[in-house]
Amino acid sequence: MTSARKLFIYLLLGLIMSGCVVSRGRVGNPIDEQSLQQIEKGVTPRNQVVELLGAPDRIIQGNETDIFQYYYYDAKSPAIILGVFNIFSLNIKSDNLYVFLDKHGITQDLIYGKRTDGVDFTLRPWGK
Fold first, then answer.
1. What pTM was estimated for this model as a whole?
2. Which CATH architecture describes the domain 29-118?
């Protein structure tokens, strides 16, 4: 077999084995910000929080306090497959909501962080 033919076969195999992959994953449900605005500190009872936001993803019990945690994760992952050399990037962001309820089941505080707007399919193999 000639060297030109071997080179052609290697190039052909390289093209066959290369490609692009784009994947996306989500965990939890997006937090409804309109429902969140209806929750008032010192007023809204536990059952109304559940009616507005649904069942919490986790309940943390503290010192005469229940903490309802709601979370939503969004992940995007582009990749370029070039046979032996691959470039892969994973971008994960989360929204987290904590609702603090006193021993009587009344909302005392809310902590909300929204970061999923910043999830993108940018391929950054060597950082930003």
1. 0.76
2. 2-Layer Sandwich (3.30)
